[in-house]
Amino acid sequence: MRAAIFDKPGQPLRLTELDDPEPGPGEAILRVRACGICGSDLHATVEGGIARQGGVLGHEVAGEIHALGANPIGDWALGDRVFVVSQFSCGECGWCLIDQAHNCEQLKFFGALGSDQPDGAYADFLRVRTNDLIAVPDEITLETAALIEPLATGLMLVREAGLGIGDRVLVMGGGPIGLSTVLWARFFGARRVVMTEMVPHRLSLGTTMGATDVVDVSGGIDAKQAVTDVLGAPPDIVIECVGRPGMLDQAIDIVRHGGTVIAGGVCMQPDSVSHVDAYFKEPTVRFPATYTKAENEFIMEMVAAGRVDPTPLLSHTITLDELPAAFEALRTPTDQCKVVVSP
Ligand SMILES: [Zn+2]
Ligand SMILES: [Zn+2]
Q: What is the Å distance from ligand 1's center to 37 Cα?
């Protein structure tokens, strides 16, 4: 099969031929039909990132069951359309045994550092555990199903923010995660959702996804003043979805006294925060990283029922051959939002 290998930081992914994977007990082989390019993959492949050299990334994946190993978990058949919940718990530790697999101390991720980490879906085929699969209903295309993963990340950020009905929320950054965070903040009862962003195309997507207000922060405007002006007061919750140095400090500066700040952007460098300013603010600051299978199932149901529509996030579909160049192009913001690879 074809697969896109990560060799080392600074080099584009490399397409190569690998042996077709074989399913072990409890496993399935998927024919990959859609795999979103995630900002976390871009971050993982820079110097100091968590991508495994020689490994295959790609975790926002939907496809069809191509082969099944012995004793699958679930009533699966060849050809079934499925989505993969792509954070893999061990199933055996204390957390896993009390049904809190997202807290598992040995979570695995596609293409991550460590020789025991599985290869991901920037490939024709993908080996998965059958207990990590969710069926994709007929009314959802596999490209749309691949968007469940970034939606799950946005849902996780809103869950950890402890959103109250009527809250004022600021989402900093309008990439796929910022936009899905906007969607869920509004869905779960935020009275106002402001999204800040610099790219015009993403500002208009913010409105499409449910922001009550968008603020263009290009050209050095004072974001704190602009957001407070729009809301009439500082936000109760700030969800940071950019991940550049200085953003977390700015989020703490903008949130109201005693408010909540969520670090959703993945900043790859150590990032300083003014402790003195934070003490005066007394915010709760959280760094959530994991979602649950139940959350992914909930999202699948909401999309199938037409209660939420992630399709505006999908901007381009490309082939595996086009992936290495497209992956590099995404390192600088363009008019693209979510790019999905359809091998
Ligand atoms: Zn992702
Ligand atoms: Zn575990």
A: 7
